[in-house]
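Z., the sequence and structure:
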Amino acid sequence: MEGILNFIMRCILGIIAIYFINAGLAIFGINLGVGINAVTILTSGFLGFPGVVALYGLGIYQML
């Protein structure tokens, strides 16, 4: 039960982190295209904050 709760909390915190990082980058005119969908939610749920960083890393790689 604790593992499921931990996964759900990481999903929720990942969604919040993606939202605020996107908003912060939009202020500077940077659009990396990391959206909030099932793949990004599951990635942040399984990997936590390093998963969110990996999503933005993929976004930067895709911009190149």
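The mean pLDDT is 93. The chain has one domain: 2-63.

Let me know what you think.
H.
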